[in-house]
Write a structure and sequence with these properties.
Number of strands: 13
Shape: globular
Bound molecules: pyridoxal-5'-phosphate
Number of helices: 12
Distance between the termini: 25 Å
Structural class: alpha/beta
Strand order of the largest sheet: 1-9-8-5-4-2-3-12
Order of helices and strands: HHEHEHEHEHEEEEEHHHEEHEHEH
Largest sheet: 8 strands, mixed
Helix content: 25-40%
Radius of gyration: 21 Å
Length: 405
């Protein structure tokens, strides 16, 4: 038996006719740079997400950098932020979130996570803002909420905090394509939304790709300039730009796969539902919380915030938490039995060398430091059969039963 985290070959077989057709069209037209598929994809995703502008770019990381650079140009009238400009984010995310802040010239300010949702803890952000206000050598300019594992951050709080302190919001939507908050698509709530089309993301291409979503005409215009060397005219430019276009070929593949995104996100939710049904009640195993999602769960896992309007989790990952220092043992046990798992993420950003002396951390982000030692993501392939999901669940259960004897 072998159950991988993700099975892209299986997905390709499922959509082969669409994808092959899309690639063949590109071979025929040979318009590799800004080909017609780019505009088509941008229009479709803008409509789907409910934003005025979507701009394809070369990766999710670049979509964050382009967002931040465009905001620096808009807010400060400068090419980059300064080191004294702080941008609040979570230390429990992929490196790229923090790295993009450094590349925009600003300083990442890491605040702790909510241990239940793994997303940025609004009260930690508020506490940091209150403390930092007394320090006039720095200025907090923005916040990057990351919708980790496909689950929305508490955007009500993010919007309130941003309004109170005059901050911009860049949503890191790399893991949450199609997810919603109060009926709004994630990526449409902040000043910009930064999407990734890395192959393993919910909407993934055949290589790197990304997209910036925004309702702001000025930001959209700047992003379009920055991604092609910094000008409207590439032979006479205004800004310090990049070559960060989305490839026509990637846009063609993404258009073909986009047809399936709602079906696939539904399949992810169904798999999550089976995992939750089959794994609940195991002592020492904490299942993902959907308190903010309105998605059905055993009642003991729902807290007060479950009364909020439902938001849609898209289960980029189904991540459990294993206490008592047995995560490594569980992972080996599953591996020996052919079940792949992954740890997203093994290090919090504030402990990485790259952020040494280049970031601030508010207090000890203890929640993030605990999460890195305890989280484990189970296979989440939208085309998994129910039997395969059941096998994973049985194997996990088997570990806890055998370790109790
Ligand atoms: C994948 C990811 C990114 C970066 O996207 P790339 O397309 O790989 O550059 C940024 N943030 C998060 C949370 C991610 O998961």
């Amino acid at each position: 038996m072998n159950i991988p985290m993700l099975d892209l070959k299986r997905e390709y077989e499922y959509m082969k006719a669409d994808i092959d057709g899309a690639i063949r069209d590109c071979l025929d037209h040979q318009r590799w740079i800004f080909g017609p598929e780019i505009k088509e994809l941008e229009t479709k995703i803008a409509e789907y997400t409910g934003v005025k502008h979507c701009i394809g770019c070369s990766s999710g990381t670049e979509s964050l950098v382009l967002s931040l650079r465009a905001l620096a140009i808009k807010i400060k009238g400068e090419e980059y932020f300064d080191r004294s400009d702080l941008i609040i984010t979570t230390p429990f995310t992929f490196t790229a979130t923090g790295d993009a802040i450094l590349r925009s010239g600003a300083t990442p300010a890491f605040v702790d996570i909510d241990p239940v949702t793994y997303n940025i803890d609004p009260s930690a952000a508020r506490a940091f803002l209150t403390t930092q206000q007394r320090d006039d050598s720095t200025k907090i300019v923005g916040i990057i909420p990351v919708h980790l594992y496909g689950q929305s951050c508490d955007m009500k709080e993010m919007l309130e905090i941003a309004a109170q302190h005059n901050l911009f919001i860049v949503e890191d939507v790399a893991q949450a394509f199609g997810g919603t908050w109060k009926g709004k698509r994630l990526g449409s709530v902040g000043d910009t939304g930064a999407f990734s089309f890395f192959p393993s993301k919910n909407l993934g291409g055949f290589g790197d790709g990304g997209m910036v979503a925004t309702k702001d005409d000025g930001i959209a215009d700047t992003v379009r300039m920055l991604l092609k060397h910094g000008g409207r005219d590439k032979y006479n430019v205004d800004h310090v730009g990049y070559n960060a276009r989305l490839d026509t070929l990637q846009a063609a593949v993404l258009l073909a796969k986009f047809k399936y995104i709602d079906e696939f996100n539904d399949r992810r939710r169904q798999i999550a539902e089976i995992y939750t049904r089959e794994l609940s009640g195991i002592e020492g195993l904490i299942l993902p919380c959907s308190a903010h999602t309105g998605w059905s769960l055993p009642t003991q896992q729902l807290n007060d915030s479950s009364t909020q309007l439902p938001t849609g989790h898209v289960f980029h990952q189904y991540t459990v938490r294993v206490g008592n220092g047995v995560r490594g043992e569980l992972q080996s046990y599953l591996k020996e039995r052919g079940v792949s798992t992954m740890v997203y993420y093994p290090f919090p950003l504030h402990k990485m060398k790259v952020f040494d002396n280049r970031s601030r951390s508010f207090g000890e982000p203890a929640g993030a430091e605990k999460a890195v030692d305890e989280v484990l993501s189970l296979p989440m392939e939208p085309l998994m059969s129910e039997g395969e999901v059941q096998t994973v669940a049985d194997t996990v259960r088997g570990f806890f039963e055998s370790s109790r004897q």
